[in-house]
């Protein structure tokens, strides 16, 4: 205590001697030989042990700290790595890092199972590509994209690619392979089933529903399709007229300007490849009915004259025709169950165990809507319903598999008491909690809670309830691919594009950060190398 008191006294005395300059702690011997430093040179103060008085700088206040102004200044001065480092070493390291982060997700495939989805696409250089997605209840994971340029895409080639990816994912992990309904995909799927009997080929339910909607809303006028065309050609006429009106408004600047004055919503320009495009357009028309009618009865519409006066008159007549709007309401009414089922399946959520029941429910709702409009009784015949029913049943018979039936049967909400006892041969499934929870909790949780006494059935059920029923994840992945490999970046090689899509698509599965020491060191080294290179050393093509 005495020593501390003495040191405090010495510091106070030293401060009183030099009030304008703070000095460091000095012993009694140092204070006796104290000399005044050179104040004109601030560097001499630091050499002699003094530090100038610190001033309050910007960024110390609460407001500055809240907005991280200092960190922003540091980031503003950050020099990003050059393109050579990004496209080579850094991309390879980021892919390796993503691969390691995905191991936790891959480890669940053994118990949860996985669906392998594949779909074809053409890049900006017209090269055919096939991408493969592994998906279950945890979400889609991009596996690989194969460049099929110069290859004959027959059933043998496609089945060979599918088998390679099955081995890569794990033969015991794959429950089903989902593709579209193309004949070559169906043939390739059957070859895969012959090689791996426990793996099912399943056609995409969304693609099946889309084909059924095309058969109904865009019936072809052929000799073999005469009856269907006779009953459904009115739907084609209504949807075709809606497309004509949309194009007439959107392709004329003055008409589009008038439309924007009456509506904040836009007329959708739906691509032909979009599922049920005609239904989407009609839904938007019904939503904008009052706005479009106000537009065509306005003075601006009547005063404006262009080259196509007859078409403008036709547009006005149809938009004010109540019978035409009644036809739109009828089309949307009986197609609503199909559209809702398509939207439910067009997700990355598990729905394989729901497809069987959804098909039956959807068909009954379509029938009820048609009979209600035609004011027919259930026992009476309807020619239009007969055509629609045949289209839906034919599509379902071509696309359903035993896997749909098995997943439906294992759903505890739909399994009866007798069926459960017959499969398990145990009475524990008749427990009060088990029966109550069949209608309350998720099917996977039900089998985890009550299926331990039947491990084989439990394992199959858990795998089935985690699978999807469509290839929509592969369709959406092409949007990511087209963003990376666009017309502006059309010189990128397929392998580098695949690596970029792999990293971009799979970041959702890993908590990845960019402040990694290994990557930062590589950035610094590569930047230093690029600074020493001349412009002639830089290649023009990024992928050569």
From TrEMBL:
<feature type="compositionally biased region" description="Low complexity">
    <location>
        <begin position="24"/>
        <end position="33"/>
    </location>
</feature>
<dbReference type="InterPro" id="IPR008906">
    <property type="entry name" value="HATC_C_dom"/>
</dbReference>
<dbReference type="Pfam" id="PF04937">
    <property type="entry name" value="DUF659"/>
</dbReference>
<dbReference type="InterPro" id="IPR007021">
    <property type="entry name" value="DUF659"/>
</dbReference>
<feature type="domain" description="DUF659">
    <location>
        <begin position="81"/>
        <end position="220"/>
    </location>
</feature>
<feature type="region of interest" description="Disordered">
    <location>
        <begin position="1"/>
        <end position="37"/>
    </location>
</feature>
<protein>
    <recommendedName>
        <fullName>Transposase</fullName>
    </recommendedName>
</protein>
<dbReference type="InterPro" id="IPR012337">
    <property type="entry name" value="RNaseH-like_sf"/>
</dbReference>
<dbReference type="Pfam" id="PF05699">
    <property type="entry name" value="Dimer_Tnp_hAT"/>
</dbReference>
<feature type="compositionally biased region" description="Basic and acidic residues">
    <location>
        <begin position="1"/>
        <end position="16"/>
    </location>
</feature>
<feature type="domain" description="HAT C-terminal dimerisation">
    <location>
        <begin position="432"/>
        <end position="507"/>
    </location>
</feature>
<dbReference type="GO" id="GO:0046983">
    <property type="term" value="F:protein dimerization activity"/>
</dbReference>
């Amino acid at each position: 205590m005495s020593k501390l008191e003495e040191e405090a006294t010495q510091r106070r005395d030293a401060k009183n001697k030099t009030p304008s300059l703070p000095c460091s702690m000095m012993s009694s011997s140092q204070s006796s030989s104290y000399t005044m430093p050179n104040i004109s040179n601030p560097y001499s103060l630091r050499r002699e042990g003094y530090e100038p008085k610190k001033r309050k700088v910007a960024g110390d206040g609460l407001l500055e700290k809240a907005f991280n102004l200092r960190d922003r200044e540091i980031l503003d001065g950050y020099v990003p790595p050059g393109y050579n480092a990004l496209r080579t070493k850094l991309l390879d390291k980021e892919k390796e890092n993503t691969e390691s982060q995905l191991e936790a997700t891959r480890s669940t495939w053994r118990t949860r199972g996985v669906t392998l989805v594949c779909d074809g696409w053409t890049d900006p250089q017209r090269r055919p590509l096939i991408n493969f997605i592994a998906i279950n209840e945890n979400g889609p994971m991009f596996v690989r994209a194969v460049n099929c340029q110069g290859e004959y895409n027959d059933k043998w080639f496609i089945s060979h690619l599918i088998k390679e990816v099955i081995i890569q994912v794990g033969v015991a992990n794959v429950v089903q392979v989902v593709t579209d309904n193309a004949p070559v995909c169906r043939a390739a799927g059957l070859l895969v089933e012959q090689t791996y009997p426990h793996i099912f080929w399943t056609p995409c339910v969304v693609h099946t529903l889309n084909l059924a909607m095309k058969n109904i809303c865009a019936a072809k006028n052929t000799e073999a399709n005469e009856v269907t065309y006779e009953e459904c050609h009115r739907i084609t006429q209504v949807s075709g007229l809606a497309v004509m009106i949309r194009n007439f408004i959107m392709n004329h600047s003055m008409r589009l300007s008038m439309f924007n004055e009456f509506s904040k919503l836009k007329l959708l320009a739906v691509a032909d490849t979009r599922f049920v495009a005609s239904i989407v357009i009609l839904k938007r028309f019904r939503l904008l009915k009052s706005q479009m009618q106000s537009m065509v009865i306005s003075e601006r519409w009547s005063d404006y004259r262009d080259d196509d006066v007859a078409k403008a008159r036709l547009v006005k007549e149809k938009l004010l025709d109540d019978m035409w709007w009644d036809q739109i309401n009828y089309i949307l009414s009986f197609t609503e169950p199909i559209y809702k089922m398509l939207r439910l399946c067009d997700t990355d959520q598990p729905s394989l165990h729901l497809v069987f029941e959804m098909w039956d429910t959807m068909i009954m709702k379509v029938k009820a809507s048609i009979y209600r409009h035609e004011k027919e009784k259930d026992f009476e015949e309807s020619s239009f319903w007969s055509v629609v029913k045949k289209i839906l049943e034919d599509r379902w018979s071509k696309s359903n598999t035993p896997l749909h039936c098995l997943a439906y049967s294992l759903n505890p909400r739909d399994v009866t008491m007798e069926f459960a006892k017959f499969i398990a041969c145990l009475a524990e499934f008749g427990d009060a909690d088990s029966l109550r929870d069949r209608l309350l909790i998720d099917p996977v949780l039900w089998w985890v809670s009550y299926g331990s006494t039947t491990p084989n059935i439990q394992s199959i059920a858990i795998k089935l309830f985690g699978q999807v029923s469509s290839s929509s994840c592969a369709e959406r992945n092409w949007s990511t691919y087209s963003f990376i490999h666009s017309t502006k970046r059309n010189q990128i090689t397929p392998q580098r594009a695949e690596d970029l899509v792999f990293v971009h698509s799979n970041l959702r599965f890993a908590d990845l950060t960019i402040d990694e020491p290994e990557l930062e060191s590589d950035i610094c080294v590569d930047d230093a190398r690029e600074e020493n290179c001349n412009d002639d050393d830089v290649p023009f093509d990024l992928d050569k």
